[in-house]
Amino acid sequence: MASDGGGERGSRLLRGILDACLLALVAEQDRYGYELAAALREAGLGMVRDGSIYPLVSRLEAKGLLDSYVAPSTSGPGRRYYRITDAGRRELWEARTTWKQVATGVDAILHVSRQGD
């Protein structure tokens, strides 16, 4: 059976970790919305729709995990860039720790069950 990149199952799994992915990308460097969407696609997370990025970063900003600023653009109006806050860095550290634990456990279980195939 061909894979479509995870489809609905992949989307459901991703919802729980997408905040951490966005925080990690912004922790690397300040980014604007389209850059975030492109980075997610490049990482293989193309199931995330471009239009869903803006509500997510707005929510992260409202929670104090990101700040934003507008920088001039050479090709039109200014772009809103997002940068991570100290609270965002703490949240990212916690998310990475949790993800490592979950991924290790799930990987161990899935590999065991694969042996029985």
Radius of gyration computed on alpha carbons: 17 Å
Question: What's the total number of strands?
Answer: 3
CATH topology: Arc Repressor Mutant, subunit A
Low-confidence stretches: none
Question: Per the principal axes of the C-alpha atoms, what is the gross shape?
Answer: globular
CATH second-level architecture? Orthogonal Bundle
Q: What is the CATH first-level class name?
A: Mainly Alpha
As a percent range, the share of helical residues equals 55-70%
Beta-strand proportion = 15-25%
Mean pLDDT: 87
Distance between the termini: 16 Å
User: Tell me about the biggest sheet?
Assistant: 3 strands, antiparallel
Q: With helices defined by DSSP (H or I, 4 residues minimum), what is the helix count?
A: 5
Q: What is the ordering of alpha helices and beta strands?
A: HHEHHEEH
CATH superfamily: Winged helix-like DNA-binding domain superfamily/Winged helix DNA-binding domain
Structural class: alpha+beta
